[in-house]
Amino acid sequence: MNKPDFDDIYMELAVNLAKRSHCIKRHVGAVLTKDTRIISIGYNGPPAGTHNCDDEWPEAGCPRDSKGGCSLAIHAEQNALLYAVKNKTEVQGATLYVTLAPCLACARIIFTMGVTKVVYLNSYAEYKGIGSDEGVDFLEKFGVETIRYAGNLDNVTHMI
């Protein structure tokens, strides 16, 4: 039996976590790992105890903020980092797997928290129709290893 790479396992989990999102616009999942162990997970959506956008506003999603973004959403990578910190888990030196490349605001947080590697599945720039992945550019500029995932998600969950 061929054993899947950890990258494939963690990205598959991030893809599945994205399915938990209550966001109308985009579903994103994140897995935070350290030393081949999962230390936290997250997906995008409103803070716990507030409205679930797909329940409260099923047609259009949550109201927009002054810049046109979601007024309630916390990004998947933010949720993963916040949960880890809330539970007193050390994230310095961790690797983050995320289904959408981090936006610039998330990239700043990822760098500040000491995450040393980010593996992302889809381009934020392609999703937003902008010229470059600003978050990836920021992380690379400041020494965070950033890789677009090119592995295989097809065979990870199949058991023989």
From TrEMBL:
GO terms for cellular component: cytoplasm. InterPro entries: APOBEC/CMP_deaminase_Zn-bd, CMP_dCMP_dom, Cytidine_deaminase-like, dCMP_deaminase-rel, Deoxycytidylate_deaminase_dom. The keyword Transcription does not apply. Residues 5-145 form the CMP/dCMP-type deaminase domain. PROSITE patterns: CYT_DCMP_DEAMINASES_1, CYT_DCMP_DEAMINASES_2. GO terms for molecular function: dCMP deaminase activity; zinc ion binding. Its cofactor is Zn(2+). SUPFAM superfamilies: Cytidine deaminase-like. Keywords: Hydrolase, Metal-binding, Zinc. It comes from the Bacteria. Pfam families: dCMP_cyt_deam_1. Belongs to the cytidine and deoxycytidylate deaminase family. This is dCMP deaminase family protein. The lineage of its organism: Bacteria, Pseudomonadati, Bacteroidota, Cytophagia, Cytophagales.
